Amino acid sequence: MLKVYTNYFVFIFLFSSSLFSCKEKNERYNVKSPDGNINVTFQVHDGIPYYNLEFKNQIIIKDSKLGFEFDSMPAFKDHFRVESAKTETKDETWTQPWGEVKNIRNNYNSLSVILKEKSALKRTLIIDFKVFNDGIGFRYEIPEQPELKQFKIMDELTEFNFVQDFNAWWIPAYGTEMDYEYLFNNNKLSELKENVHTPLTMTFGDSLYLSIHEAALVDYAAMTLKPLGLGKLKCDLVPWSTGEKVRAKTPLKTPWRTIQIAGKAGDLITSYLILNLNEPNKLGDVSWIKPGKYDGIWWGMHIKNNTWEMGPKHGATTENVLKMIDFAAENNISAVLVEGWNQGWENDWSLGKFNFSKPYADYDIEKISKYANEKHIGIIAHNETGANVENYEQQMEDAYAFCRKYGIHRLKTGYVNKQPKEFHQSQFMVNHYNKVMEMTAKSQIMLDVHEPVKGTGLRRTYPNMMTREGARGTEYEAWSSGNPPSHTTILPFTRCLAGPLDYTPGIFNLLFDKKSNFRIQTTLAKQLALYVVIYSPLQMVPDLPENYKGNPAFKFIQDVPTDWEETKVLNASIGDFVTIARKDRNSDDWYLGSITDENTREFSLNLDFLDAGKNYTAEIYADGQDASMELKPLSIDIHNKQVNSKTIFKIKLAAGGGQAIRFHPAK
Ligand code: NOJ
Ligand code: CA
To answer: Quick one: 375 and 272 in the same domain?
Structure first.
């Protein structure tokens, strides 16, 4: 029996669709966003499930198939009929314990369709759609049923058949570097020749911006996108080393496939759709979770002043760490990252020789933890695993007991390995990363994951999952050709849509490599601006303390918070420039970061985000008149100006430059 609940936004058509030359009746349903701009149509035609997507009455995605291939039973791709469909509306606002914004509205219309096979097996598949004003999410549910217990998914058949040849900002899914650690490319969809990672952000002219990603990746493989030509993309799950994509059992809920849609590039940044598609906080009281800044024993190793392993240049010595604790305590920094403190670094990292609870002899953990405690500074332990998960899983209990013993509430993990047995984005690794997240939560440990699985919004459910890498970050400035200035003008619209990024901005000694012409390709003011532009609840203060001491620009880093009440994008052009203003959660201050690529820019900014009727002192960190990343990267002009919400504020960015501002209510 066809059971349908309809209301004002759902229409059901039982007719021969014009979209298909059809021999039999179509069963067609649609659901619109609360503002009516986005329309998703679901349809079963000749037994095959499809969806279409329209934005402002323009068709965007057409006749895209849904389904699965399995290992030892017939596929889920045809022979379906709709058994029932139901719709729902939700409008609620929830509060993030920490974040880029405090309150998030979760407002959508949903359509849930139960499909039943007409064939002998009569199996059931459910497809859920949620349509928000800023995009859509859909996922599959395979309920428990007699014919379906344990099985392998060999392929997920989800298609994204775009009717236009969009411009896509992409990185390869299976390149020669580590996972997501690439510079972005910009090509037409029809020019793509290899699988790409998500978020995949696409543009069409200057009034349509889309990004495909996923939400709530749990016990499943990450989705890459395979180009099929002519603007068509297909979900291609990252496989196990044995070839299958997912080892599944019912009841199964896949991650949500997400498509964020915006009329302006900046609206992608303030879309919280991925968080809305995740489950609420499962950890209960999270008052122990604290955003903040951290310095550390880190950059010294990357620029080869120090070593991770014990020896004459060892970085993680008691003496060095005590100094870093002092530096943190003096400069409004809440924690110290210590890399190279534990035994095993002298071996090939992937061999599984790391011990996660045995410090090197020159690292006195008793003394260090006591001193850190007295100074109210946290220690960030570091567990580099070399992606040898077997070794790590054997020691996780002990590693977290060690943290508990020494009052350590923050942990950075690492999975350096370009050719691990199981891909970083495979179901095997997804399950490992999620296990670490759950186990550390039980020990009240916050996480910063390097070489991670991509973020899919699970930080909502597990707020101890603070930040992660999964991008070509500042470390590449130390030992590669570096990151060209456009890189950080692309990240906010691509990688950062997946969640917080531990990019580690804040290098002051931009010309650190005195032996070559190499330089970090930004100005000093841009390094500051990145603290606002690239959101992370844990932000590193990475340079050597001596490079900050006495430099007046350091005041911005001392001041800048990492936890925000509001976020506004003031202007944006992907790959060119972006300006973001954020309001501090714990004061009335606003902060602004504006960055450009290799071109100089001038903007007039509207400051109407400031409280009307209040006067503010703008503490401005601008590129100096003669600044440029090539010639004078360190030239900075620091000055104050009185402003209010009516001020039209002019800013000028040098080539490779930026500007950072703190707006502080005037007394
Ligand atoms: C790569 C990480 O991204 C980096 O932050 C870390 O220092 C090294 N691995 C060593 O674990
Ligand atoms: Ca890395």
So the answer is: no
